[in-house]
Structure formats: structure tokens, C-alpha cells
Amino acid sequence: MGVRPVRILLVSLLVLTFVSCANKPTVDPRIEALVAQKLMLDIRYFCRENDINPATQRCTTPVTTLPDELKDMVADTGIGGIILFANNLQDTEQMIRLNRDLQAASAAGGHSPLLISIDQEGGRVVRIPQNISTAFSGNMAIGATYAEHGTHFATLSGDVIAKELAVLGFNVNFAPSVDVNVNPENPVINVRSFGEDPHVVSQLGFAQMQAMQNNKVIAALKHFPGHGDTSTDSHSGLPLVEHDLAQIKTVDLAPFQYAIDHGDPGMIMTAHIQYPALDNSMFTATNGTKTVLPATMSRAILTDLLRDKMGFNGVIITDALDMAAIAHFYEPTEAVLQTFKAGTDIALMPLAIRTAQDIPKLKKMITDLAYRVQTGELSLAEIEQSVARINALKQRYVPTEKEQLPLSQALVKARKTLASPAHLKAEQELANSAIVAIKNQQAWPIKPATKIIQLVMPDNSKCMAMTTALDDALKATPSTADVAIRCASLVSDTTQQITAQQRTAQLVIFSDITPQQSLVEMGGMDDITDWRLRPKKEALDAKLMSLMKEVKPHQISLLISMRTPYAVVDYADYLDGILASFAYNTQVTEQVDASGQATLYYDGPIYRALANILVGNQRATGALPVSIDKVND
């Protein structure tokens, strides 16, 4: 090619570039600022280039102090919120410093305070380290106390949880879950629900919400319009609820409507669930498939129903947009665009920021969304109204920098508040009040003739916690002070090993944690590899059944159901007794003896409550909050 043709080509390219740039509209920074306020990001992990795991090419370095890159990101973009996970949280001072540094970064950019959020439901979903906080037994345990105690423990747990979050600098709690669990096969809600009765769930959810918000922590009722009748986890798939309109109104929507009618919920979180009776519109996914719109993307559900018909005036926030129910069907920016069109105020976890190279992607997302506003695809008036709702919530609940205590005083207050004697007493009272006796043919109190107790627990940590609690209770009772306790792990020990041990015991205590741990309990989508590698539930169930069948007629056997109790009917004929605890929170602390030797100590209020019932020091006074088939007593 000669010189002249090359010059002509270069001039042509320059002209095309000029024309392209000239035609590209300038995005209004004010609109970008509005869009940014509607995004809430996670900073669970962050890596510099040499920190990335070479084997997996994944970043797994937790953010416990705020890197300069993330400080600048918060200051430059003006994002409205951050969600933190267990990986981000180590100890009291570290949590306070991290949250203060996040707020300082936002202030440095001239932005309003951040919404700093967390999943601290109690029970199976907690993020604050349990050895320094108060976790409680969770919603289904609270549901088990309703018949005798009404809303007492919902209020008490909401009060304690919010007080502990507030002193650490959190201002949003993604709780309570007010899903009405009417599906025994529900893999993700189950024990996180207060129960199957919409009236009870409404009462308990509202009481817990009020207690949290009375302590300046925004409660986020979830998962609208209801996740209680699903057999698919929206972390791994797109659930479908085929209720008719009457059932949706009287069951699924009832707790949300009750809270709206009787109080002022700060937030409601959407569910990535198809509800064709509410909206049967179809959409085409990125892979070309067509399916029904999930609620998170439905204007008919979020605007026409929740806002206009149900009268909700607070902030609508999505569940995490990285969950497979959304991420499988939408590209990140498209997902945010569609949920904003539907009427969402805040998009939760729309984009993973794991390295500095991800930050320009966030800025591009903000610019692209602002451009969609300028072109009229998104309504500027609706975006402004949405940000006004967010700002109103911040002004009501988020303390200003001037209102913050100096760091030294904040640390003193936090250390007095977290796991205080009064809070731990409340936690133990809930555990004591929640346990249900489903069947008892003299399986407890433990008989004086008992010499050996064989425990068969789901894993070693629960073995140690139950052994500790039971040993303490037995030694405090003169008639059983010399009883020996052995424990086997259902996961670690073979069927042959456990069978050999239980043959020589007079009492065999089995335990069950059906269904298995869900992704939200582990943390989220970053944990999906570990979640898929869990021991298979079917194999564990079969193993437990075979062990029960090995119990001899002269032995006493009982089962402790430590999650939802639906499966106990399968085992009931082989057992003399069944207890339900709805929880198995295990606290691990390090104890140092006089010689300086450190050992790990496993404990927990639910284990102490169970032990005291088994030795006869207290009664099981809870009532089942869900229905199971009749068990012959």
C-alpha cells in the first residue's frame, strides 16, 4: 500500500472517530449521582493482582480494612450502600473501624451517609461472630413460643439484635423473613420462617420489625411477595409459585400487608420468584429462552401491587442480583435496568467488585444507566422520587458524623452491649422456651440406671457442644453424675463404627438437621462450590435410618430435630422420644489454662436447653409452628 492510500485511511478513521464522539451524548453528572445512590454493593473480597488464587483464578481475600481503591470507589461514584458478610467481620474494634471508614469515604466524596447492611436474622443466618454477639435460635424457634408467650421473643430478639448492630455502625438489617413456610420441601426458607400460619407470621414479623426500627436499625421485610412455598432455592434456580389470587392474598402477602397497615416498614426486599397469578408476562433471557418474569423484574408486582394497591411508601430493595435466578437470565446492567423499570429503589449486589479492574465496570454501569434515563427509557421523575425515598430513610435512621461518639467511647459502648449478660440471658430464655416435645415414651428424664449415653450428631462441632452441655447437666444431678457420654459424627464416622459404639449404650440420642444448609446460610453465591460439595442428604438420611433400626429393644432411643421437624415422621416408629429445637447454633471460644495451653470450647444455649430437659431440670414447653403427620406417642 502506498503513502497516499495510508493517509486517506488515517484521515477517514479520524473523521469516523470525530463523528462518533460528536454523536455520543454527554451524560448529566446529576443523573449519574442519582443512579449511584440506588446501588448497594458487597465488598466481601478484594484482591490486588498477586493475591488472586492461581488455582481457581478467584479472589478470596476478605476485606476487613478498607483498601484505598475501595475508598476512592465509594468517594468517586457516590454509591448509596454497602452490604457486609461474615468474612468482613472479625472483632468489635475492626467492625466499627471498617464501618466508620466506609462512611468517611462517602463523606469525603461529598455524598450522603451510606446504608450499611447485613443479614443478621438470628438462627441459621447470622454474620456477626457468634462468640462476641447474641445470635438467638431463629424465627421458627420464636414461632414455637407463640402459643405460650405471644410476641414476647420476637420483640426481645429484635431489640437485642438491633442494639448490637447499631453500636457497630450498621443501619440496615435484612430481616425479618416473613415468608409463610407452607412447603415442607422448602430448601432455603424452612427454619428461617416463623411458621405456616399467616396470622402468627404477621404478628411475630411485625413485632420484630418494630423492635429493630425502634433502635434505629432499618428492618427489611423479605422476600416479597413470598418465598414460603418453593422447592427451589433462588440462589441456584428460578422458583415458581402457582398459588391462585385468593391464596396469595391470605397467605403470602398477609404479613407484608399487616406491617404496612399497622406500622412503617423501612424496607421490603423482593424475591426472585415467578408468580404467574400476579404477572404472567414473558421475557426473553440472554440465552434466548422465554420464561415468566420474576417478581424482582415485574412492574405489576412491585409498583401496581406493592406500591399502589398495598400502600407501601418505603424503600424497595432487590434480593442479591448475583443469584442464579437473575444472573442466569440477565447481564448485570440489564438486570438493574429492568428492576428499576419495575419500581425497585435499590439494586443489591448488581456487580462484583473483586479487583481494581472491576471498578471501571461499576462506573460504566452507572453511566450506562444514566444514559437510559436521559433517553427516556427510565423515567427521570421516578428516579428522583426513588432517591428521595432513600434519602428520607437515611435522614430518619442513619446518624450523621456529628452524632457519632468518638471512637474510644464507641468501643466502650459496643463492648458493653455485645453479648451482655442481659442479652445472653434473653438468648437462653428463647432456647429454653422453644423446644417442643413431639413424642416421649419415657425417653427422658434420663434414668438412674443409665451408664452410657451414645450421641449421634451431624458433625464433630455439634458432638462437642452437646457433649459439653449434657455432661454439665448430668454432673449437676446426683443420680446421673457418673454417666459416660460418647459421641459419633454422622458425617465423619462410618455406619459400622457408630453401630459398634451404640450397641453398648443404654440411651442413644440421634440428631437431624434436615434440610441441609442453604447458600444464604453459608454466605451467598461466592460459596456455591463448597455448597455443591456438601455430603449428599439422601445418603445421610439413609445412614441415620439404618442406625435407628440397629437400636435394640432393651435400649432407649430418641431424636433431636435441630431444623424443621417435617422429617421426624419417617423415623418416629423406631424411636421412644422426639424433641424439636429448630436451631443448632454452636459457639466456639478459646480457653487458656494456667499453663498457657489453649483449647477450643464448644457450647450454645440450645444445647444447654436440651440437656436440662433431658435430665429433667426443665420441661419442653414449645408448640409446633408447622404441621407434621401425627406421631403416635
From TrEMBL:
Entry keyword set: Glycosidase, Hydrolase, Signal
Domain Glycoside hydrolase family 3 N-terminal: 67-391
Entry EC no(s): 3.2.1.52
Pfam families: Glyco_hydro_3 (PF00933)
Signal peptide residue numbers: 1-24
Matches recorded under InterPro entries: GH (IPR017853), Glyco_hydro_3_AS (IPR019800), Glyco_hydro_3_C_sf (IPR036881), Glyco_hydro_3_N (IPR001764), Glyco_hydro_3_N_sf (IPR036962), NagZ_Beta-hexosaminidase (IPR050226)
PROSITE patterns: GLYCOSYL_HYDROL_F3, PROKAR_LIPOPROTEIN
Entry-linked Gene3D superfamilies: Glycoside hydrolase family 3 C-terminal domain, Glycoside hydrolase, family 3, N-terminal domain
Reaction it catalyzes: Hydrolysis of terminal non-reducing N-acetyl-D-hexosamine residues in N-acetyl-beta-D-hexosaminides
Domain of life, source organism: Bacteria
Family listed: Belongs to the glycosyl hydrolase 3 family.
Name listed for the protein in its UniProt record: beta-N-acetylhexosaminidase
